[in-house]
Amino acid sequence: MEFQNAGIAIDTLPKAESIALQPIHQDYFKVQTAQWITLWVTLLITAGLVYFFNPAMQQPVWAVLLFGGLIFFALLHYFLMSRSFKYKAFAVREHDIIYRTGWLIQSTRTCPFNRIQHCSVEAGIYERKYGLAKLSLFTAGGQEADMRIPGLTAENAATLRELVIKKSGAYAKPA
User: If we measure between CA atoms, which residue out of 61, 89, 158, 152 comes closest to residue 119?
Assistant: First the structure.
């Protein structure tokens, strides 16, 4: 048998832009904001303790640099987080799941069902408060999730998990 490897015309391939992506739940921004507050309050308290207990730093110039810098970066972080939130979206197709994120640097990830080894649904403190969860998809070769889709309602995350398990063939097939 002779080897064949015919070319594919790129203009005949489906366009990723034509895929209708579903935005994540709006309450996830509240989760991100709560996490942002926790992070920056912790950093400000830590900086205050360092400033208070280090006599060499107890000068006005250090206070301005330390706290001014922290406030600047906190506001920059919040700005980038809020802009990026608008671009978080996902889609479930017949053979894969797509997740898009990013404002400055946009990333679109596709995870085929036949590559998924297992999946999990996780919900942290803030996510549980708003009835949200995140779906984590794992493929072979790593301990970290290859794709995490945050901002799903807990019900949708559980439904998607069941769908992924069925589509990936993770259920044991009866003999």
Answer: 158
Tokens in use for 136?
């984590």
Which two three-digit tokens encode residue 68? 């001014």
- Which letter does DSSP use for residue 149 in this model? E
Half-sphere CA count of 45, side-chain side, radius 13 A:
6
Q: Where are the beta strands (DSSP E) in 75-167?
A: 89-92, 96-101, 107-112, 116-122, 132-139, 147-153
Predicted structure pTM score? 0.82
- Take residue 74 and report the two structure tokens written for it: 């906190």
Sort residue 144 into left (φ over 0), alpha (ψ -120 to 50) or beta. beta
Tens of pLDDT, residue by residue over 43-100, are 999 999 999 998 888 888 888 999 999 999 999 999 999 999 999 999 999 999 999 9
Beta-strand relationship, 132-139 and 116-122: antiparallel
Residue 5 CB-half CA count within 13 A: 1
Question: What CA–CA distance (Å, rounded) separates 30 from 148?
Answer: 18
Residue 131, pLDDT score: 97
